[in-house]
Amino acid sequence: MAIESINPATGSLLRRFDPITDEAARQKITLAAEAFRAYATVPLDHRALCMRKLASLLEHDIDDLALLITQEMGKPLVAAHQEILKCADACRYFADHAARILASESIPTDDNHSYVRWDPLGIILAVMPWNFPFWQVFRFLAPALMAGNVGLLKHAPNVPQCALAIEALVRRAGFPRGTFQSLLVETHQVEKVLGDERIAAVTVTGSEIAGRAIGAQAGWLIKKSVLELGGSDPFLVMPSADLDLAIETAIRARCVNSGQSCIAAKRFIIHDTIYDAFESRFVAGMEAMRVGDPMKETTDIGPLATARAVDHLEAQVQAAKQAGARILTGGERMLGEGNYFEPTVLVGVPRTSAVYREELFGPVAMLFRVQDLNEAIELANDTPFGLSASAWTRDPAEQQRLVSELQCGGVFLNTMVASDPRLPFGGIKRSGYGRELSAAGMREFLNAKTVVIASAGSVSEPTKPFLQHGTDILRLRS
Prior knowledge:
Number of strands: 20
Helix content: 40-55%
Low-confidence stretches: 466-478
């Protein structure tokens, strides 16, 4: 079955690719294994040089890369530019901070000397989604390559051109051949790739279904895995909040990436005393969002990435309505060409309904009225997901309770949830496990190797991580 790149704004076919065979995939794994043996010895300074060159290439080619994102998955062009810049920032962050993160850690013990060193694991398989086709990859790529690992990317089937563009950028930046490769394979081929004994670990960002399947196989194979899956993030607003800023941010937080983000706010939990004001202004703000051609700078919401995504979102909204919810605005797919869905606000979604516990991946918001902070926290935690939460209050006591009692991977007070290379990113419950970004994310695919020296001078502690010299760099880059 062909891998097709289809413009979601028009439905037109951009390019078609034949998936590579299982044998071709094995050959790429062989190349990656050979590359790792040499790349793990490349001086860290040289890796950093390539990573900074990669950042520069992203910025230099930003117009072409952003256009590719918009054409393949429908992200508004302005947001696509921002995504590329964020990738460049991540490259520079890990180039600047890898030495600190990877430095060996001396630990006082009864022996003469003990320390922990961080060694790369090898080939990391990355199974990535379409909604941030560059950023999702780079938040794995930058720390993994700086740590001395090599990567194989199985990207979402609707963004094959983005996958190939990333591979080309890595090569142009000077990273050795085989250090990072894209695998244009079908979903059913992933099992064979992961089953290859040379694959050391896997990282998955995507649906709960994909996470369950790959995580289960990785567990059976006893291979390290990191899962970043779905989310149904709460957005809590208490009476002491700056209501103007909270409402403005709430609209952006629901509609970021046309609503197709795991950390987009999806459930809005509002205190009774300010609920009516919030609801009316939030609905007006959603109705004011400009839906249309993602190539126009004035567009706020573009098309959903696939026709199937529109069908699924429409079915969820209708299921909510049948369960007793009311639609305050929107609720329908938009007629004409392209995968467009109206910005939608639902109220009265029963907590016993199936849709209440599902992720809504599109510009659809659910509003809930609560009487106090206790009910707000209870409702926020009443979800199978646990990715992030945005909470709005200026009361220090309420802030402390929210930080300690919300069940999720990150709490953002009086600001919108966002990923940052400096901070760990990930969730709990059915949102997955493990972390991306920051030192925590970089160390997910490293071996924390304990070294204990019984007599001084028998083994020297390295002064810098992975700085073995004598490697023929020119040979590596061929």
